[in-house]
Each structure stands twice: as C-alpha cells, then as structure tokens.
Amino acid sequence: MLTATHLTKRYGDTLALDDVSLVVAAGECIALVGESGSGKTTLLRSFNRMVVPEQGQVLVNGRDVAGGDAVTLRRTLGYVPQDGGLFPHWNVQRNTELVPRLLGLTDAALLGTAALEAVGLPAARFGARRPAELSGGQRQRVAIARAIAAQPPVILLDEPFGALDAITRSDVQRAFAALQRARGITAVLVTHDLAEACRLADRVAVMRLGRIEQVATPRDLLISPATGYVSELLERAGAHPSWLL
Ligand code: ADP
Ligand code: MG
Q1: At what angle do helices 92-102 and 136-148 cross, to 10 degrees?
Q2: Atom 25 (ligand 1): residue with closest C-alpha?
C-alpha cells in the first residue's frame, strides 16, 4: 500500500532522512519509533506529500505521490497531526466533516456522524461541543474520527496518544486498535514509546538520525535487536515480554 524508496531529505545541515526505504502492506499497522529528531515526522509526511524528499520515490497504492493530485491523496490518506489539528472555533461535528466536505462528498454530515460513533463519541452528545469542551482523550478521538471520516484506506498518525495520561491513553489506544483491525485500515503510527509501538503495531521501524536501524515484528525486535543502538533503546524503555501480549 505504501512504498518509500531511498528517501533523502535535508533541512540546511540536518539530514532528516538519509536513504530511507520502507514498505507497508495493506491492512498493516507499522510504528515508527525513535528519539526526538530522528526523522519520524518527516518520513510520515513524505507519504502525504507534506514533505517532498530531494531524492527517492513514494508510492501510495502503486501511484507516485509526486505526480498525483492532491484530492486523490486526501481521499486515500487520513492524517492525525501531532497536535490533533482541530479547529478550536469549530464544533466537533464540523471538525469531523472537514475532509468529506473538502472532497465535495454529498453525505459529508453522515460520514462525520458515523466516524464519531466509530471512535465512541455519539454525535448527538458531542457533536455541538467545541474542542475546548472536551477532555484530552475525547479530543484525540475526534482527531482520529476526522482522519477516518472520508473512509481512507490509509491513516497516518503522529504521536496521537502522546499527551494523554496513562489510563486515557490505553482507552484511546484500544479504540484505535479495534477500529484499525475491524476496517483493515493501513496505519503508520509515529510514537517515541516502544511499549506502545510493540502493543499496537504489526511491525516496528526503529529510526535514528534519519535512518531506519531495524524493521521487525515486535517479537523479533525484542528477541533479536539488530544493532547495539536498538538493544540500548529497548533496555532504556524497560522492554518486557508482556509487551507482546
Ligand atoms: P521526529 O519526528 O523524529 O522528532 P523530525 O522528522 O521532526 O523528527 O525531524 C528530523 C530532523 O529534521 C530534526 O533534526 C529536526 O530538527 C529537523 N527538521 C524537521 N523539520 C524541519 C523544518 N521544517 N526545518 C528545519 N529543520 C527541520
Ligand atoms: Mg515528530
């Protein structure tokens, strides 16, 4: 579904992506993990063309994103930005309908309502509220609802659970995982939390200094870290077999 081949991206002297290649299968959830500044967001945004790499190629569903049109991309890839990206002066329903409306879909309101239901926020109760009138967990649910409202086959999520307290985080994680699996959505999930990556993803890509150190299933990552850096990261995070349950 997603193919990145030999991507390189520089910001001045910073090599944000250094010859990165990654393939994501349809229906797969892949986590990009790594320390702050390792290139996770840059790689994520290469898929929806918010970042244009200097070298390399990005294919979405077999099509080169460099040549494709913006509407097709928006229809194919839902996006949850790091801050949630909700418009504070719009209510929940309007925020959720945004992409279907931009796409000119006539049933935008219905799609928004259905997406809110899918993340456990009945529109009748929450639709009229503004983001400020929600808890942090509810706001992140709305951000996810907005990303899936147009029913894209792929969603890109940038640290969607990062700002939540532990209990809320596991609630929203569960809601996301159930939705992703039930609908067979292809997901790229950026996180700096290795435990979260191992719990939610089919495969984990560990990034460091703009490169991918290892891509593996959570099990293989824990059992056979490919580099000293990956071992160190696992150790620092207190890696534990219970992450695989
Ligand atoms: P991560 O998401 O893993 O924290 P990023 O992809 O945001 O990492 O950033 C990778 C590197 O590129 C960092 O060194 C960051 O400072 C730099 N970078 C990212 N975006 C920009 C930008 N718009 N301008 C300049 N430098 C940037
Ligand atoms: Mg980031």
Answers
A1: 20
A2: 11
Q: Measuring CA to CA, how many Å separate 174 from each of 24, 27, 183?
A: 21, 17, 14
CA Rg value for the chain:
18
What is the token pair recorded at 158? 């940038």
Give pLDDT, residue 209: 97
Closest Cα to residue 20, out of 48, 44, 37, 49?
Answer: 44
Q: Which residues contact 38 (CB under 8 A, 6 or more apart)?
A: 207, 208, 209, 210
Beta-carbon neighbours within 5 Å of ion ligand 2? 41
Question: Which tokens belong to 172?
Answer: 């929203």
Task: Give residue ranges with CB within 6 A of ligand 1.
Answer: 11, 14, 16, 34, 36-42
Tens-place pLDDT, residues 198-228 = 999 999 999 999 999 999 999 999 999 999 9
Q: Is the entire prediction scored with pTM above 0.70?
A: yes
